[in-house]
Amino acid sequence: MENQSTFTIYENDDLKNYFNYHIYFFKYEGIIRQAILRYKFREKSYLYKSFTNFFIKNKKFCGFLEKYDIIIPVPISSKRNKERGYNQSTLIARELSKKLNLRLVKNCLYKTKNVIEQSKLSKDEREQNIQGVYSLNNPNLLENKKILLVDDIYTTGSTVNECCKVLLSAKPSEIAVLTIAKD
Prior knowledge:
This protein is of the alpha/beta class. The protein is built from seven helices and nine strands; from the N terminus they run ββαααβααββαβββαβ. The protein has one domain (about 10-180): Rossmann fold (3-Layer(aba) Sandwich), CATH 3.40.50. Helix 2 packs parallel to helix 5.
């Protein structure tokens, strides 16, 4: 039986955002919130398979993604990666890359500073905390490409917006953001 779950595509019309679309499946509440928190903070890395399988079973979602060339996970600092043992966005991006035949690019966008976790800050603090934290290498890989940036949660949008701001310097033709949930 085909999964007819819904997802939301938010077409960006806010001049403060640096991306064209935001795609998400869930509101960040209830059982989804609990699952994401377990996935991200309680060593339940295997949950990426459940999230990506849910995405892939939605034919409309897969059809929308056919136009994208490259998938990029939001990077975490090397310190956080050592503590956690994995980057939750990379696990999802890697699985989507395999299943949807999108090129996974992990050698372009880097987190250069270890800052206070966004989840511990207010909206205003998040915007300031994340500024200047990411850098770009190999921009030629992204020029004129349609990029799908993957993160787990969209709360204020500060993280993905800062990533997209940096990615835009490579002159991609379009950037969409995919998250599991939106607050």
